[in-house]
C-alpha cells in the first residue's frame, strides 16, 4: 500500500520516542550510578569509576550468584522444554479433541497466576509438617520430615519446580497447537512405513517444528531471567546463598543489607550487558 | 486399548490434576480455621469459615493495595493501548526500512533485567520527588505495556486481510478512518488478547513495585508478600485468602487468553 499519508509518522514517532526515553534514561543512569559510590543512607557521593566492578569480581558472593543464575537458567529452560514437548506430544497422541480443549484450559491456569501467588501456593505445599506436597512422603515414611526449601541441595530445584509448573504446562499447550498445524501427509507416510509413534515424533514432527520450538526456548530463556519473585517469596536466596541469583543479590545489596545502590547498580549493568549481547546474538541467529 | 496409551492417559490426567490442585487446595485452605490447616494429615472434611476472607476484605492495607494495583495497572494498560496500537498498525501496514529495527527494539526491552531498570529509576524518582507515588509506577509500567502490546499487535494487524482495507480506500476512506473503522474492529479479538496479556503481566509484576514503593503506592502483590513476612504468626487461612484474592483478576482473563492463543495458531495454518 503505497499511499501518501502522514499516518506512519504520527502513529510511530511519538510512541517510539517515548519508549526510547523511558528505556534509555534508566539504562544510561544505571551506568552513571554504577561509576559512583552512592548509598541510600546519605545524599553525598563521589565518582569512583570502575572500582565497583573490580570489587564485584573479588566478591565471592557475587561469583556464587552468577553461578546460581546460570544453574537456574539451565535447569528451568531444559525442564520446561522437556515437560512441554512430552505433554504436548502426549496430548496429540492420546487425547480426544474435546479432552484436548479441557487440558489446554487447565494447563494455562498456572502461568496466569502472579508469580507471588504461585510462590505462596507452593511454599505452603512444601511445608515440611503441614504441606500437601510433602504429605505423601510423610505418609510413606511414617512421619519423617522432608523440607526441600531449607536444604541447599534441593532448594534451587524446589523453586525451579514452581517455574516449570507455570511455564512447562503452558508451553505444552503451544507445542500441541504447533503439532496440530502440521500437514498430516508426512505423518501418514511414516505410519505406512511402520514407524513407531515415538519415532514419528522424534524423526518427523519435531524436526519439522525445529524453528518454532527454538523460538519458544528463546522466550523461556528471557522469562527465566525474571526469577526474583519466586525466590524472594520462597527462600529469600537461602538457605545460605544456595538460591541467591543475581537479581536477588543486587536487591539485598541495594536495599536489605547495606543500601549500596551503586554496588547493586554495577551488578545490574553487568547483567544488562550480558543479557543484551547474548540475546541479540541469539535473536539474529533465530531470525537467520 | 494398548497399555502405552493407557499410561499416556494416566500421565496426562496426573498433569491436569497437578495443574489445578495446588490452587484449589489453597482456595480450600482459605475457608478453614487454623486448627484444620495445621494438621499432620490434610483434612478434607471441616467446618468452613468465612472469617479469613472477611478479614482480608476488611483490612485497609489490602483494600488500598487493591486500589493501587487497579489504578496503576489500568492506567498503564490504557497508555499502552493509546500509544501501542497505532504504532503497531503503522509498523504492520506501512513497513519501511526501519520496521525490522523497530520490532527488534521493542522486543529488546524485554531483555532488560528488571533490577537494571528499577535501581536507577528509584534514584531518579527520589530526586524528582515522585518516589513512592502512583504516577511513578504508572510511567514505569507503561514501558512494559506499550512494548508488549506493540509486539503482540503487529502480527494481529498483519493478519487483517489487505483486500478489506484496499476496498475501504476505494470507497474513499482516508488512512486514519481505515485504521479506526476497519483495522481496529476486524482485529479486535486478537487485540483484546494482547491487551489482556499486558494487563496480566503488570498485575503480576513484583520487583519494580517492590523497589518503587515504600508505603504510599504499594500494590497488592507487595501487600500479600508482606503478610507472609510476619511469619507463621499470621493464621495461614488469612494468607491463603490473600493469595486467592490476588490470583482472581488474572484468572478472569482465562477465556480471552485461551481464545487469543487459538486464533494465533489458526492464522499460522493458513
> What is the H/E order of chain A?
HHHHHHHHHHHHH
Q: Structural class of the secondary structure composition of chain A?
A: mainly alpha
Measured by DSSP, the beta-strand proportion of chain A falls in: under 5%
Most extensive contact: A-B, 95 and 96 residues
Uncertain residue segments of chain B:
none
Known CATH architecture of chain B: Orthogonal Bundle
How would you describe the overall organization of this protein?
The complex is a heterodimer of chains A (288) and B (270). By secondary structure, chain A is mainly α. Chain A has a single domain (7-287), classed as MetI-like fold, CATH 1.10.3720.10. Chain A is 75% helix and 0% strand. Chain A is built from 13 helices and no strands. Chain A has helices spanning 7-34, 51-58, 60-94, 97-112, 115-125, 135-141, 152-181, 185-192, 197-208, 210-224, 228-234, 246-257, 261-287. In chain A, helix 12 (246-257) packs antiparallel against helix 13 (261-287). The longest helix of chain A is centred in the first third of the chain and has 35 residues, at 60-94. Chain A is globular and about 75 Å long. With 270 residues, chain B is mainly alpha-helical. Chain B has a single domain, classed as MetI-like (MetI-like fold). Chain B has 13 helices and no strands. The two termini of chain B are 34 Å apart. The mean pLDDT of chain B is 86. Chains A and B meet through helix 1, helix 3, helix 4, helix 5 and helix 6 of A and helix 1, helix 4, helix 5, helix 6 and helix 7 of B.
